[in-house]
C-alpha cells in the first residue's frame, strides 16, 4: 500500500484536471460572460475529462506494477552461505525435525525483521542450540516467512545431509542491506562464543527458499 506522500503527484494531477473541468463547465454552462470561444471551451472540457481518465488509468497501472515488483521481491530466493566454526567427532541427525525447526526459526527471524530489531537472540530446539543476530544498514526484509524457512531447511537437509557435525555460521541475505547471521550446532558441544559475522569469508553458498517447505 503506497503512502500518502507517494500518491501526492497523482492526487495533484487529478485535482488540477478536475479544477479545469469545473472551471470550463461553469464558463460554458453557467456564466453569461464567455472568457473563451464556445468551441474552445468545449474542447477544454473534453480534453480535461479525457486526461483525467488517462491519468487515473496510469496511476492504477503504476500501482499494479509496484505491487507486482514487491511480490517478486518477496518470492526471491534467499542466499545462504555456510562456514564451519568448530567441528566435532559426534553429530546430531536433524531429519526428523529440520522442517519444524526451520519454521520456528523463520517465524522468529521474520518477527524481528518486521519490528526493525537488531537484537541478538538465542535458543535451543531438540538437541541443537542457536544464536541469531542481524547486521547492515536496514534490519528488515521483504522475504516471506516461508522463504526464510525454506532456505534454512534446504541448508540443513541438502547441504548438511540431515546432520550437524559441529558449530556452523550461516549468512543469509535477500539482496539490499539485509544480512542475517545464524550460528547453529549440537547443544552438547555448541561454541556459543565463536564469531559469526561480517568479517568471515564463505566458500559454500546456496540459493533457496522457494517451494522448499
From TrEMBL:
The keyword Transmembrane applies. Keywords: Membrane, Transmembrane, Transmembrane helix. Residues 70-195 form the Secreted protein CSS2 C-terminal domain. It comes from the Eukaryota. The keyword Transmembrane helix applies. The chain crosses the membrane at residues 12-29, 41-58. InterPro entries: CSS2_C. This is Secreted protein CSS2 C-terminal domain-containing protein.
Amino acid at each position: 500500500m503506497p503512502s500518502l506522500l507517494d500518491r501526492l503527484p497523482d492526487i495533484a494531477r487529478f485535482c488540477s484536471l478536475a479544477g479545469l473541468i469545473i472551471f470550463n463547465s461553469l464558463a460554458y454552462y453557467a456564466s453569461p460572460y464567455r472568457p473563451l470561444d464556445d468551441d474552445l471551451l468545449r474542447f477544454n472540457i473534453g480534453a480535461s475529462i479525457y486526461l483525467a481518465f488517462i491519468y487515473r488509468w496510469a496511476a492504477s497501472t503504476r500501482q499494479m506494477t509496484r505491487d507486482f515488483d514487491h511480490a517478486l521481491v518477496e518470492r526471491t530466493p534467499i542466499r545462504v552461505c555456510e562456514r564451519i566454526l568448530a567441528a566435532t567427532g559426534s553429530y546430531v541427525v536433524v531429519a526428523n525435525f529440520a522442517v519444524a525447526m526451520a519454521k520456528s526459526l523463520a517465524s522468529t527471524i521474520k518477527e524481528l525483521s518486521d519490528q526493525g530489531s537488531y537484537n541478538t537472540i538465542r535458543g535451543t530446539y531438540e538437541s541443537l542450540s542457536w544464536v541469531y543476530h542481524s547486521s547492515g544498514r536496514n534490519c528488515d526484509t521483504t522475504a516471506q516467512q516461508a522463504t526464510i524457512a525454506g532456505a534454512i531447511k534446504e541448508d540443513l537437509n541438502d547441504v548438511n545431509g540431515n546432520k550437524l557435525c559441529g558449530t556452523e555460521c550461516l549468512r543469509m541475505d535477500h539482496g539490499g542491506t539485509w544480512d542475517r547471521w545464524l550460528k547453529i550446532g549440537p547443544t552438547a558441544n555448541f561454541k556459543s562464543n565463536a564469531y559469526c559475522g561480517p568479517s568471515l569469508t564463505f566458500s559454500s553458498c546456496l540459493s533457496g527458499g522457494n517451494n522448499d517447505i
